[in-house]
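Researcher: Batch entry, complex prediction.
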Amino acid sequence: MIRFDCQCGKTLKASPDLAGTVCSCPACGAYVAVPHPLSDDGDLRETAGAYALAAEQPVACVSDEPAFVPVSNPRAPFKRSALEVWWESQQNLTFVGGLSGILAVLTALGIALYPRLLQSGIDWPSGLFPALVWMGITAVVAGFGCKFLDAALDSALRGGGPEQSPFLEFDPGSALASFTKWALCFVAGPAFLVYEAIRFWIRCGDLSVVNATILLELTVPAIGYWLVGVLVLTQRPDLVVPSPWQVARCLRTLGVRAVPAGAAVTAAGFIHVWLAINAIILLHTSWLTGLLLLWVCWFSTWHCGAIAVRTLGSWTAPTSRLGLS
Amino acid sequence: MNRQGSRAALSHGKKQSEVGTTIPFNPYAGNFMFQRRLILVALASLMASPAAYRCYDRLMTKAPPVDAAMAQEGKVLFDHEWTPNDPLAGGGDGLGPVFNANSCVACHRQGGGGGGGPRENNVHVFTVRPNVSEMAAGGKARQGVVHTQAVGPTFQESFGHVHPEMPIHVLPISVGPVFQPITFSGNSLPRGVDLSQRNTPALFGAGLIDAIPDSDIIANERAQRLKWGLATSQSKDLPVGRALRMADGRIGRFGWKAQTVRLADFVRAACANELGLGNPGQAQPQPLGFPSYQPRGLDLTDAQCDQLTQFIVSLPRPVERTPLDADLHRKARAGKSLFARIGCTHCHVADVGNVRGMYSDLLLHDMGQETEAGGNYTDQPLEEPAFKPGSGPFPAEWRTPPLWGVARSAPYMHDGRAVNLEHAISMHGGQGAKSAHNYASLPVDEQAQVIAFLMTLDTP
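Model: Structure tokens for the complex:
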């Protein structure tokens, strides 16, 4: 018998021939993927699949213990073409465009006001209030972008499919929660690396090959850790912190694909940082051009981010492991 | 089987299913072989990282030791009153033929040998930019020094030698108590001509400035850009400076425009330009009215220049002197925090690298139209081979002068136009205007506290 845990905490049993299928928990009714005997019950993918199922089809399907009802995959009856997937991902174009516009204006406001605030020698408490207001508004707006990325990741983890539009309902609370998740993953590891990279950039003098290499050494794991951290957190919501070991395990799952993915993500990250820096510099001289470039930068960031999380999600999707897609 | 048993089984390479039990998921338990490999890879990467080399390199960076014997010889040269055909000048013509003083200490004397100089020792510099037709004919900008003295009337320089439209006017023009810019009986200067003055800088602590790595100055530049929202040094109000990059990539740090990289070069240039002592690093200037003059040889050898440099390196650094009077001490302490609060430390950074209490970022800052020199405010920098193309100092750009020793280095500003510290603060324009405004907005007693703090920055 295979023993595994449901999200409700109940320990379940199933015969080995049910491995890879999805069953409903007799206690809470949630759909639970029966793990393969060769993988431990902490394997991330099966559990995530169960959550995805539970979220999508919360139909009560209670059966008395110890009977389990295998459920066929209701979501991926056929494999969708890449073009189809791409087209569906463009449905949020207007949303991302508007979001990027608001964020570009907020960023420009921050860039314009903060130096003046700093230069006026204003006292800390009185200077803190507008800074906090600005940070709060920016966090909520960016949270909608994080929800957009979450939707892309969720879709990929379910084996592809139409993404839930993050702007169907205006819910600042959930946007803030989503932003918090992404921020948490940033603080859990990349924050330190990014801080070190900036500190090193300040101190290293004019860039040489050696210095560029060191910056690359700090940047690659920073960006990679962030995305994989989000992936881990999305797949195991019961974990509060995407610890280094969790990230390492997830990287192990990705295998050799992590190398080109890391390179692509880092290259995209560099391009966006370069774009953002130039946009901010332009804001000081030609604010309209700077604002436009800032919008392009934000817009591209969300879409590149969505591509990245979709790719990572599809590579670690439980459905592919269970042979359902 | 308990957890320890499971771990033991895993460590022997057995699969979980083979052991026949299930372990609750715990990311910190199990799979230790993989974790160990990961740690080893991480350690190997760190060891191979060039960061280790950079850290080692930084830790090993130290100021070169002072050669006491050379410094002693240098002091003799520093105090020596040079004469034409001076015996110390070897095969050269000695002092002149054009010069501003006959010894180093004649100008560098405030607060002891090596200090700054009063306004009567100001140096007069000129810049002549070609007009459109001259540029079309291949004409280039000229700049140099109009020397106040000469070994004979044949060589005496005047403003008339700078440009034919300017009157023959022998220097010095004005050394009165009130600073006067150079004018000629109410006539404005010819188009393309700029005349300005330079006050003698103090040399205390110059050895420490010389030892600051370029990367520390660039660090100031980058930190300021980050601090001010990535604004560039062309900002007219935000205090964002820039390091002056020479053609070979090194960073300038000496001189009012940060135009010189090394102290040794600064010494060689000063010997040639101010005393007329040609040396291997800098030829002595040709008299403006006698361009065919040919010196018969060099006045100083490399060894003599190195001795002078060693003497300057051996000079003690300025100090922050604690006032003995308790009330004054309290005022100075309050003034120090006010100095930071009103924004003076945006540019007058207290520490650069390992050098403490210098109060300068060694960067060029746009100080506003009122301070321009070397051209009009909107003029592009002069193209000189020493600088990277297009990166020379703009007319209104000045290096933040270190404030250590400021208590005994009046007058202030690049040409000594400010007679005291209050006057100097009020003359800050451009990127320093906001801080000057903040200072002016302080109550009188708090302004006095800031000045009290500045007066603690004394010569050794």
